[in-house]
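hi!! sorry for the late reply, been swamped w classes. u asked for the two structures so here they r. pasted raw, havent cleaned anything up. first the sequence of the first protein and right below it the tokens
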Amino acid sequence: MLHGKVAVITGAGPGLGRTLARLMAAEGASVVVAARTAATVEKIAAEVPGAMAVPADVTSPADVEALAAAVTGRFGRLDVLVNAAFPGTHRKNVLEMSPADLASWRAAVDIGAYGTLLACRFLAPLMVERGEGAIVNVTSMSSRKGYAGRSDFAAGKAAAHLLSHCLADELGPYGVRVNCVAPGWIASEVLDDWMRVRAAAEGVGYQDVLARDLSATALRRIATEEDVARAIVFLASDRARSITGATLDVNAGQLFT
């Protein structure tokens, strides 16, 4: 679906970012992976044929501008931008936050919101020049449903969600589409660890928590990284050429919107 296209993935970590990079390459794209930690993106790029690694902090205008220059220098064009950074959440209620927690809260929001804005500001012009392109911002179920202790993550992703609507309206006349993919829980070691923490706190077994969480989804399963990546690839492809300003939920029926 992406044959001959050049795709940049920001926030390309070892989970969803790596899975997405592999899938995009398998679908025919030339992939650029960008994230703050050089060792991380270099490892991912080494696993993806022809991939390019660019260390970049998405909250740094200089880093993101340098990323755009690197893409131009290597490929001379850009067709797809995926903003996939997932800031951590500190699981602190607002009234419990220390000054250090407040600083961490702001940093998480900067990654989710400001980082998405910067990537679009410096990379979207490469698509505007050509009169076509696709931006997919990975938001979250949390961008539309708040949970105690997750206000940092939710606020950043909610900002990216509405930013996407604004950008869809701004960039549409130039042939650039902007959409969101909103995952819910994603099957991973991180999720398993969180379930174990909750099980210990409640004095129950891991399987009890897993069964309860599965029962909260209509499909009685938890979406995988590949499930989310395939949704992103669809919105990035020409098969979605008349879709912009939309959000595709990938949560196995955990939340209906």
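now the second protein. again sequence first, tokens right under
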Amino acid sequence: MAAKKPLNVVKISKMKQQQDRLTMITAYDYPSAKLAEEAGVDLILVGDSLGNVVLGYDSTIPVTLDDMVYHSRATARGAQNTFIVADMPFMTYHGSIDETLKGVRRLMQEGHAHAVKMEGGLEIVPAVKAIVQSGVPVLGHIGLTPQSVNTIGGYRVQGKDAEDAKRLMNEAKALEQAGAFAVVLELVAEETAAAITRELSIPTIGIGAGRQCDGQVLVFHDVVKYASPYMEKRFVKTFADVGSQIREGIEAYVNEVKNGAFPAENHVFKADEGVSESLDSLYGGGKTEDLPVNAEASASDKEKVGAQR
């Protein structure tokens, strides 16, 4: 497909006005980002969910700023024409503004992100304001905030009752006023998410937040069922099952190596005519125990290898 121009915050805002729904997907490396861009997604999120789906952690909490910079940089190389948002990981924006901005700087300069995402409501408003004033776009994130899972009582739907719905509405408005260009609503009751979407002038991007958000985001590995074992989630639809195909492909490879079917004739390279006979005459039919050993040459070779390292 023809190269596209990446979005910016002005275009993203216009998409809400034009009722053009935003598509966002997570990506954590070069190949997944390249595939996502080729598929036409609007935004790529380098989420700290990489802790769960790529690094093997039980939560996002162990993910470090170094992890995020590394994966954001790899993702940016794969999707050079897509707007990329990188997560600020656990406890990197709850201290001093100076420390927060240092982390933001790394994600932008070293990670090559176009924006950062931050979880939280009223408590992060000062940090959001400072980051936006420094010239960096911020994507808010309320509802289920995985970095706070230990304080919100686990992975449960938010905004189900009137009081909690009002809290989320106030948080969304505060983030908008602080300068956020959009807000992710995660695991939020559909009615609450719809009301927030109507009230805000900036886009809402839902994940498990119903049908009325201005856009949707899903995890790459959920979309293509790339996990073992895969855990079904009510708010997720899988659009392909590459996990099973990968497993079956590797099993076939193992079996063919074991039974001698791979490599086959069409996988090998041939030497010039007479090379095999010449080697047999010199080295006794290829018996390694008969190979001549030149101790001096061997020592010299070792020195060369050491120098190259």
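hope this helps!! also noticed smth abt the second:
Confidence is low (pLDDT under 50) at residues 288-302, 304-309.
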